[in-house]
Design a protein that fits this description.
This protein is of the alpha/beta class and 474 residues long. It is built from 15 helices and 18 strands. Strand 14 and strand 15 form a beta hairpin. Helix 1 packs across helix 12 and helix 12 packs parallel to helix 15.
Length: 474
Amino acid sequence: MTVEVDTVIVGAGFAGIGMGIRLARRGDDSFVVLERAADVGGTWRDNTYPGVACDIPSHLYSFSFAPKHDWSRFFAPGAEILDYLRHCALEIADRLRLGTEVLDARWVDDRWHVSTTTGDFSCATLVMAVGRLSEPRMPPTPGIETFPGEAFHSSDWRARDLAGTRVGVVGTGASAVQLVPRLADEARSVVVFQRSAPFVVPRPDFAYSAADIRGFEQNPRSRETLRSELFWGMETGFAARVGLPGHLDSLRQTARDHLEAQVPDPALRADLTPHYEIGCKRVLLSNDYYRTLTLPTVTLEPSALAAVDGERATAQSGAHHDLDVLVFATGFLSTRPPFARRIFGRDGANLADAWSGGMVAYASTTVHGFPNLFVIDGPNASLGHNSAIVMIEAQIGYVLAALDDDAAVLEVSLEAQRRYTDDLDARAADTVWLGGGCESWYVDASTGRLTLLWPDLAYAFRDRLAEFDRAAYL
C-alpha cells in the first residue's frame, strides 16, 4: 500500500527536524520524516567518538525557534546536542518514520513516488535533508583486509577498551583533533598519520555557571542578544576567507603563535606547519591537540597511510608502525552525495548525472529537471566561518514560501540556475578556498568548483533566500 502525503522529508538531523517542526507549527500536518537509522540526530547520532563536540557556540548552533537556556558549555559536547535534537523531535514524533531508508524517489505524473525499506510514499513535495556528513569516506588502503585488529571510521565508533593498545589515527581534520587527545589518555601509544598539516587555533571554551543558566532562563532576551552577538562576531571571520590582509594576517598569526607556544621542538613544529594559506581548509579549534603530539607515547607520522600488512602499517614515508587498532578520521563524501543516485526527476533524469559537473542548485535549494524537490544543506549552502543552523533556517523559510505558491508544480528554469551558479563561481574565484593552495572537501575534486560552501557572508544568504523568487521558476 502507498501512503499519500503532501510532503516527504528525508533525514532526521537538524535540517529534517527543523523542517518538520516549522511545517507542524503552521498547521501543515500532511507530512512524514523518513530516517534510515533507529534514532534521530544525524551526524550527532552517528559520531560518538571520545571528545566529540561542536566548534560553533551552543547558543548559535541551535534553532532560533527552539531555544535552549541550559547549555552546559560555550561549545556543547556531542551528546548534549543529540539530546537537544531528540527533545526537538518530540514535537513531531507522530510524523517520524525511523528505520526507513529511501531506496529511490521518482517524479511521475506530477508527484514524487518514494520507495523505502518499509513501504512506499506518494507526495507532491520531496525535501532532501540528509546533510553532507552522513556518508563516511574510507580511503582505499592496500592490505587493510589483512589487519588483525579493529579498523573503523570515526563515525562508526563503538564502546571499546583501548587500554594497553597501539592505536593509529588516519587523518588530521576536525574529528581527529578532538579524538587524538582522548585516545592518548587511554591507549598505550598513538600514531597520527598526517597527509597535510591543519591550521589549529585556541578553543575559547568554558562551562556556563548556574547563575548564567538561570539568567538565560529568566531573561529570554539575553539569549537572543547573545545569539545575535555570536552571529555578527563570527561574520567577521569571512574577511579572512576573501584574503583581506589585516584579517588574514591576524588569523594566520594566531595559529602560528598557538603552534609555537605548545610545540617547543622545532622539528615537530616544522612537520605541523601547513604549506597552504589559512582558511583554505577548515580552521580547527583545540587547546590540547598540539600538546598531545609532544607526549612520548604519541607519534606524528608526517605522511599519509600507504598500506597495511598484518599489524604493520606503512606510511608513504616508508616508516612502519605496529598497531592493534586503526581509526579512520577521514571525513565524508560531501561533494558527491550518494543519495543523488537514488533521485530521478523529469523524464527519468538522475540527480547524480545532473551533478556530474559538480553540485548545482538555484538558491542553493532547487534543481532544474527535478520539480518540487528541495535540497537543504546541499550545494553551496554550507559555511566556513559561521553556523550551519543559520543557513538551514534560511532554506526552511524559502521552502515554506515555495509551498505557499499557487502553482502545483514548481521547477526552476535552467537559465535561472545557470545565472545563480555563475554568480557563485565568480564570488568564489578570489576566495582562499580556491586560491589558498590546498585540496579540501569544500571543492569538487573533478571540476575544481567550490560546490559546498556559500562564498559570502551568512547574512547575505539569509537575505537572498528571504523571499521566494517565483520568476525563476517555470
